[in-house]
Amino acid sequence: MASLSASPPKCMLHIPTTHDYLLHDLCLVPRNLSLMKQGSLRELRFVRSSNQTEPLIDSTDKLSDIPLLSCSEAMERLKQKRENQKGKQQFLAMYSSIFGGIVTDAGAMVIPMDDHMVHRGHGVFDTAAIMNGYLYELEQHIARIIRSASMAKIVLPYDHETIRRILVQTVSASKCTKGSLRYWISAGPGDFQLSPSGCHQPALYAIVIEDQSLFDSRGVKVVTSSVPIKHPLFATMKSVNYLPNVLSKMEAEEKGAYAAIWLDEDGFVAEGPNMNVAFVTKEKELLMPSFDKILSGCTAKRVLTLAEGLVRDGKLHGIRVDNVSVEEGKRADEMMLIGSGVLVRPVVQWDEQVIGNGEEGPITLTLLNFILEDMKSGPSSVRVPVPY
Ligand SMILES: Cc1ncc(COP(=O)(O)O)c(C=O)c1O
């Protein structure tokens, strides 16, 4: 049975609790479950998504077979489900301002149904990589989530300094030295209205995901996305509304590609579903689409800085952030995807067009090495040590 206490663990005592929720308020059992007993829910249907082979609910279940669970029973079932469904990623620790502490039991890594982020998408998020016990570009990612929160009109639950302290401590509690830290700021729980006016207090959630895999430098194929790009207002903030991004990624996978590339409303190259793009032109210029209508990628910005070394060495003739036409992109010598998840990934084909000579570009691979080196031994401005 999951043993959970509403009071924060000792190591967390100095982290403020913004909510006085008791854990049983987080119980996932709908409050009106008794309606089911009264027979308002007559029949359950199969629930099956495209990549699921087994239905989630057996339609032959009789209503009386659906148990009414206590909070601890629900938590125990969540824990069991997690243990039975271990995927490639391990979730090592979660912080929630709702219970004002960190949990390491994946079954307890839940967020309230009435959080405005869950039912209205009123939340923002960000991710920072963990490498050899350091958080890479944490400051830059915190600055971006704060910008995103402001664009989404969400008041910060804590100041910048406290957010950083909570995030670092969550990674510390997880003991994870390689993986990623993902965190959300939401309008918080309250009710199921469209307006957030009933939300008591904004919330902060963070999760540590272990990932021991090595970064892949093999060239990938991309396609042009037919899923419409987000309006610049939404594309420039990292909100949880990633349905277009998910559909775009699915479209790529259906076409045997790694990612689908968005073009902006004027037909210029924009970005991928969770990465920026860049090119090395025939004139040996590093060319990147400007950030005014897309997400300002922390990795892409770091690449721009690190690439200055290649200009000094004469390997690049210049660096340009500008509008990029599809035609210019497709005839480039090199194309790359850039982001916290992929770091720098060579692209060898875009739609039917082979990029350069069809092999991973040398400048792209050098930039990947620069980022990897930066993650391992870069300056303190990009590496925050985690005290384990
Ligand atoms: C839409 C989009 N563009 C670009 C990026 C790359 O940003 P970063 O390098 O900060 O991870 C991401 C990252 O998730 C993204 O979601």
From TrEMBL:
Entries under InterPro entries matching the protein: Aminotrans_IV (IPR001544), Aminotransferase-like (IPR036038), BCAT-like_C (IPR043132), BCAT-like_N (IPR043131), Class-IV_PLP-Dep_Aminotrnsfr (IPR050571)
GO terms assigned for molecular function: catalytic activity
An individual GO BP term: carboxylic acid biosynthetic process
Gene3D superfamilies xref list: 3.30.470.10, D-amino Acid Aminotransferase, subunit A, domain 2
This protein's UniProt keywords: Pyridoxal phosphate
Listed cofactors: pyridoxal 5'-phosphate
Family statement drawn from the similarity comment of this UniProt entry: Belongs to the class-IV pyridoxal-phosphate-dependent aminotransferase family.
PANTHER family noted in UniProt: AMINO-ACID AMINOTRANSFERASE (PTHR42743), D-AMINO-ACID TRANSAMINASE, CHLOROPLASTIC (PTHR42743:SF22)
Stated name of the protein: D-amino-acid transaminase, chloroplastic-like
Lineage: Eukaryota, Viridiplantae, Streptophyta, Embryophyta, Tracheophyta
